[in-house]
Amino acid sequence: MQYQFDAFILDTEHLTLFHQQALVSTDQRMIRLLLLLIEAYPESCSTQALLQAIWPATVVTNWSLSRLVSDSRKFFKQHGCHSPVIETVHGHGFRFGTELLLTKVPASVEPVGNVSGNVRHRRWLFTGLSGIGMAFLMVLGINQTTGMLAGNAPAETDLLYGEPAHVLGRILWVDDNPVNNSEELAFLRAKDLAIYTVTSTEDALLLLGMYHYDAVISDMGRDGDALAGLKLLQSLRASRIEIPFFFYTIAVSEQKENLLLGQGAHGVSETKQELYRHILSLFTTDDCQECLESKLSISMN
Predict the structure, then answer these.
(1) Which residues of 52-77 are buried (b: 16+ CB within 10 A; e: fewer)?
(2) CATH of the domain at 29
(3) pTM of the model
(4) Which of 12, 88, 144, 238 counts the most CB atoms within 10 A of its CB?
C-alpha cells in the first residue's frame, strides 16, 4: 500500500518515503510515526500508544516522542511542505495533518537511488490492516527493518532520544550548529545533566511550552539572524517565563554582556570554563562553591 500527501509517497510495504518520486533517506522512527498516524486518521493517536509502538520494550520519556515529532516537522518543512503533517492534539497525542489531502495510490513507484535489493522485494503484508493491527505488527517486527536503507541512512543506535535516570537537571541548548559544542555537551552530561539540543527558536519555544527545563543555553546568531538568541530571550521574558537563560557566544564585550543581562539573561560566556561555572552553579549550594571551583580547575587542566 502507498499513501500520497503533498509531494510525498509513503510505501508501507517497503517502509520507505519518496519525495517527488525520489527515495529520501530518513529515520525509520519517522516512518513508523507516519504509519501509525495515517492508519488512525482522522482519529488521533495517544502519546502512550505511540511510545509503545515506536520504542517497544524500551523505557523512554515523553520527550523522546516530542523530539521525534519536532525532527519530523522540520524534515517536511525543509522539503517544501508548509502544511502541518503532524498536528498536536493537546492533552492526548498527535494526528496526521487535517489540511493535507491523503490518498491511496497503486504500489507502482520503484525506489530511486542507493537502496539494497532486499528492500525492493520484501513484503510486510501491511495492506488492509487497521490502526490497531498495524501497531501490533510494528511492536512485534518493526525492529527487523533497521538497515533497510543503504548509504547514509542513520542507524537507530546513533539516535539519543531517551533520558538517563536520576539526572541532576535538564538543560535545553539552542544552537544551529550543535556539533560545535560536542566537547561541552559531553562534559555537562558527565556531570549527570540531561542536555537536549534544538537548532531553532521555534523548536525551543515549542518544547519550553511542553516540558520543564532547569535552564536554557543559547547562541546569539543563527539562521542568518544575528539577534536570534536575544529574540528568544525577549520572547520568554515577555511571556513571564523566568527560566535561567545563558548565552554561549563569541566576542563578548562589557557592553554586550550588560545589554544581555539587562534583557534578563543570567549569564554570558565566551569560554567553556565560564559556561560550566554558570551551569553547575545552578545545582551547587553556596557552601560548595569552593568545591565547584576546584572541580572545574581539575577538569580544565
Answers:
(1) ebbbeeeeeeebbbbbbbbbbbebbe
(2) 1.10.10.10
(3) 0.46
(4) 12
Question: Domain check: are 216 and 115 in the same one?
Answer: no
Hey, what's the cell of 34? 507516519
Tens of pLDDT, residues 253-292? 888 899 999 999 999 999 999 999 999 988 875 445 455 4
- Let me know whether 70 and 43 are in one domain: yes
Number of domains in the chain: 2
CA-nearest of 231, 224, 232, 221 to 175 is 221
Other CB atoms closer than 10 Å to residue 188's CB: what's the count?
22
Do 152 and 23 form a contact (C-beta atoms < 8 A)?
no
The two counts, helices (H) then strands (E), for the chain are 11, 13
Which of 36, 38, 33 minimizes the C-alpha distance to 5? Answer: 38
Cell of 98: 487535517
